[in-house]
Amino acid sequence: MNAQSQAMRAYSAASAPTRTSRNVEYDAVARITHRLKSEAMKGLEGFPDLVKALHDNKTLWNIFAIDVADADNQLPRELKAQIFYLAEFASQHTTKVLARQATVAPLLEINSAILQGLRSGAA
User: Fold this and answer.
1) pLDDT bracket for residue 68 (50, 70, 90)
2) pTM for the structure as a whole
3) Is residue 68 within 8 Å of residue 80, measured between CB atoms?
4) For residues 92 and 67, what is the distance between their CA atoms, to the nearest angstrom?
């Protein structure tokens, strides 16, 4: 690697946009939502990968629940309660999907609503 390419790499990294926590949350929800939808569309053949996507979605919602339960979280009390409720719903509904008693549609709807809120800047 020559000096010019090293300089270009260094300056391009510095000029990369700063990622906010909202951007990170959006990307995580978007990736998981895309995986849920893709694997669900495959039917039975996609079920093993759907299980992995469901696990990741449940983990994400557990993280959100832990975050809003933290006393230092500055979101409005009502919004924190709503997010906590959605985390509980996601957990319970995931169990139903794994038992093949429900579809992923409600999880996709919830995640899509969260994505819209994150995109619009609503907090």
Assistant:
1) very high
2) 0.80
3) yes
4) 19
How far is residue 25's CA from residue 8's CA, in Å, rounded to a whole number? 29
* Domain over 20-120 is classified CATH 1.20.120: yes
Q: Which residue has the higher pLDDT, 118 or 11?
A: 118
Domain map (residue ranges) of the chain: 20-120
CB-side neighbour CA atoms (13 Å) of 68: 20
Which residue's entry shows tokens 């832990």? 66
| Type of residue numbered 105 | A
Segments in the chain forming alpha helices (H): 3-14, 21-41, 47-69, 77-98, 105-120
Distances (CA, A) of 77 to 68, 84, 86: 9, 11, 14
Structure tokens at 37: 């939808």
pLDDT digits (tens, 9 = 90+) for 93-109: 999 999 999 999 999 99
Taking only the tens place, the pLDDT of each residue in 10-29 is 555 555 566 688 899 999 99
